[in-house]
Design goal:
74 residues, 4-stranded antiparallel beta sheet, Alpha-Beta Plaits, alpha+beta, 45% strand, globular
Length: 74
């Protein structure tokens, strides 16, 4: 299991993020949500499972999204 923290603008919906996660993870589970209304930012933390190569390749799909701000994998 790896922890994935995605930071996005408030334009992003949880379903938008999860629609990308299903493409490259075997399992994913939302474990926390942080909403920063003042800065119009959303941070979602997921526990993900899958092959390292697939996860690394899949994370690149987020870069094309206008709402994407950053991510961190632990």
């Amino acid at each position: 299991h790896r922890k994935l923290i995605i930071t996005a603008s408030m334009k992003a919906a949880q379903k938008d993020i999860e629609s990308l996660l299903v493409l490259f993870t075997q399992k994913h589970k939302l474990i926390s949500t942080d909403v920063d209304k003042k800065n119009n930012r959303l941070s979602l933390t997921y526990l993900i499972e899958g092959r390292r190569e697939a996860i690394n390749a899949g994370l690149k799909k987020f870069y094309d999204k206008e709402w994407f701000e950053g991510l961190k994998v632990e």
